[in-house]
Amino acid sequence: MFGVWGHPEAAQLTLYGLYALQHRGQESAGIAALSGGCLSYVRGMGLVSDVFCDGVPADLEGAAAIGHVRYSTTGASSLENAQPLVIKYRRGQLALAHNGNLVNARQLRESLEEGGSIFQTSSDTEVVAHLVAQRSRESLEASIPASFRKVAGAYAFVFLTPDGMAGIRDPHGIRPLVLGRLNGGYVLASETCALDAVGAECQREVAPGELVLIDDRGLRSFQALEPEPLRLCAFEHIYFARPDSQFDGVNVHAVRKALGRKLAEAYPVEADLVMGVPDSSVSAAAGYAEQAGIACDMGLIKNRYIGRTFIQPSQAQRDFAVKVKLNPMRSVVEGKRVVLVDDSIVRGTTSRYIVRLLKEAGAKEVHLRIASPPYRFPCFYGIDTSAPSQLVAAGKGLEEIRRSVEADSLAYLTQEQLFEALGSDRFCTACFDGEYPVAVSVGPEKDCPEVMDDEVPGGRR
Predict the structure, then answer these.
(1) Of 63, 105, 122, 291, whose CB is crowded by the most CB atoms within 10 A?
(2) Is the pTM of this model over 0.85?
């Protein structure tokens, strides 16, 4: 997500911000802008460059805008679910963009539909739109906190109306949101790299449970929701975020190098070459190579015109994308004992394919080192892995996983080693240990689990 208030080229800046955040979602893109006192929007399927191939349309010109790139975890990958979502209700127009997942979305939706609400999308984002619209007699300052007291899950939201822009983050801070300043205006973004892209100065991260309200009078902030212990998603550092982004003042690239050094310390192996799976594992591979004193080289060439395979919406698309995305460098790997560093193994199909590629290119051995613990539990907070059957490490031991991916050896970081590299244990690691900070129970729809009826706090469910 990206939002600007108080800059004459808000939509253009938002477009640049979305380009910087393209790694977070590749299915659809959109911008809603305040122009002439009302909200106009453009949304479409595909990359930012596909949707805005001719730049920003003239009807999006104005001093405020919000934008979104989508990676679907709830709701179909379709135009109707593209964001920002723009509605008209009693108080006027409202645009909203969302990163994360609401774990009680189905329960709330059913209640709203019983009360007469009509939904146009299958996304959990629209649930929030209805909750806010129900409180149309109140200001956003009152209606947003009241609405989110009914919501459970991991989320960061940005709202835009003709009168102002707002941002809110879930009480655990599982999903990120940062605040910046630019030429007297304000910027909200999912990552600091997007602030850098438009020349904005990062002020701080929006705190867990905090609501920031921005209008022509400036910025106001208050604790809208009771904060819980901070639990930023560990996968932000491991995979999702760009290496040049920062969380809590810590650079992502530096963390990934530290993860690689931990791997080399704990799981050394006789080898001739270290290589990372581009791009998210390159930093960890560099850290491993430095610690181990082994040469690091590019053993895989990435097709820069293929996006991130992990966030493709279907397994068939992920398989095809990997095949056209990566090509081995025979001259680099032939006859070599290779340490292949990757950020994680989720489904296992990509790892197996890459190991086979390297061996077909002449690698004598391929030793797989994973810069995170085994991914054993489904995520309900914004990663599309909500079925245990999708996870190669669920119910399997290390040797069984090694055989599955066909590596000569395999080692993962432990959770303790992960926290040491992160410099803190204040992270959501439910996908590794099953300890969910927001309690969930798996309902019949895999992508819309319900909150536990008794609202038991975090723990394995």
Answers:
(1) 105
(2) yes
